[in-house]
Write a structure and sequence with these properties.
This protein is α/β, with parallel strands linked by helices. Helices cover 42% and strands 12% of the residues. It has an 8-stranded parallel sheet with strand order 7-6-5-4-3-2-1-8.
């Protein structure tokens, strides 16, 4: 069995896909996003995933986004392309394209309309997707909150191993920490199990996570670097304080995600039913907290607040 020669360690961002106001892709912004990730010590980008709204894009758009990220990343970021789709043929096409452009790996979530009923069904679907990019590490993307498929990831690894020679591991975005721990321990740590819940990163680290993929690493990476550093030094209290105390209030992460989407001179998401741009009151309160206290990743968050006068949403 072939696994990734370089496991995904440290922080991997799940970047937003930038759009123009008319809903068309704004690809040049990706260059700026990539440069920002590199400057903040992020090691990779998981593109066209949930945060990147991949399932809302056409196959052609997803390929364009993947190509631009691969170009922008150069040798400084590892690009993992999410290729999950309800159409097996389209998922295979996306996987083959990711291999063609030289991506580091591919990820694939479970089909989420006609869902796999059994582990065997899920492993069979993923095996066909992985076979379309045989030279790339394949990661199963476990995210039941979006797919409605909560089959055990550990059981998936057992069933998929004989079918997927390039099986690397799992992007684990779920609160079932027992399943996560079992995946980490499976076959003596054979698989690369990347933690996907930013809000409970400390729990993931305690259970053996070596790498993490998340949307908040787009703009709060310096804080999470401190979390990891404190944990590695054995200072659990400091790690927990940085992650869930005064430094980073996770009840505020949802509106901050909205803020990150709307910064600068581009629209960073397509219109959808759930509005998540932060309110004016939130912006005033949060900006005051950052400026007055000089904490919460001051320079990082200050950069997010910069340029809001140019954005119609906050004018």
């Amino acid at each position: 069995m072939q696994t990734s020669p370089t496991p995904l360690t440290g922080l991997v961002a799940a970047p937003y896909t930038p759009f123009h106001a008319d809903g068309s892709l704004n690809l040049p912004v990706i260059d700026q996003l990539a440069a920002s990730l590199v400057a903040n010590g992020v090691t990779g980008a998981f593109v066209c995933g949930t945060t990147g709204e991949g399932v809302s894009l056409t196959v052609e758009e997803r390929q364009q986004v993947a190509e631009r990220w691969q170009q922008a990343a150069g040798s400084q970021l590892r690009v993992i392309v999410h290729v999950g789709h309800t159409s097996l043929a389209d998922a295979r096409s996306l996987a083959a394209h990711a291999e063609k452009i030289g991506a580091h790996g591919v990820g694939c979530l479970a089909p989420f309309f006609f869902k796999p009923a059994t582990i065997e069904d899920l492993a069979g679907f993923c095996a066909e997707v992985a076979a379309a990019a045989p030279a790339l590490p394949f990661y199963y993307y476990q995210i039941p909150s979006m797919t409605g498929v909560s089959l055990s990831a550990a059981d998936f690894l057992r069933a998929a191993a004989p079918r997927i020679p390039n099986l690397a591991g799992v992007k684990f975005t779920f609160e079932n920490l027992m399943d996560f721990a079992e995946c980490v321990r499976l076959e003596g740590g054979r698989y690369d199990i990347v933690f996907g819940r930013d809000e409970i990163l400390v729990a993931g680290l305690a259970l053996g996570a070596r790498g993490a993929i998340g949307s908040t690493y787009n703009f709060l990476a310096p804080i999470f670097h401190e979390v990891i550093a404190a944990f590695e030094k054995g200072d659990l209290a400091r790690a927990r304080g940085k992650a869930g105390g005064g430094e980073c209030d996770h009840q505020d992460l949802h509106p901050l995600r909205g803020l990150a989407r709307r910064q600068g001179d581009h629209e960073n998401h397509r219109p959808r039913l759930r509005a998540d741009a932060p309110s004016a009151a939130f912006l005033e309160r949060k900006a005051g907290g950052v400026n007055a206290r000089g904490t919460r990743g001051g320079r990082v968050l200050s950069a997010l607040f910069a340029g809001l006068s140019d954005c119609p949403a906050f004018a």
